[in-house]
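Model it.
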Amino acid sequence: MVKRRVPPPDESVLSVPVRVRPGAGRDRVGGRYEGPHGPALIVAVGAPAVDGKATEAVRRALAGALGVRAGDVELRLGATSRDKVFTVAAPGSGVAARLTALRDGPA
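Modeled.
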């Protein structure tokens, strides 16, 4: 029997499940949605769900809400779905806490 070493989880990348609400009256980040990728953060954007406009608006809104550069946020899953998973590269201390507060409310 061959034992394989499982690498530790990469702590330099944070996965963020998101539920998108395109075509909203204003951009808003906050709230919880029980989605297919686990508890998701709700992000409402004014951009329409056409040609990736809503996805780009969500990426920028998520970066602003988490206090990271927009270039550090990347779409991983769900290009054409309302349920998406973004990754945040090199999250600083406190990004996970901000995500939890936005998704679940202040502790």
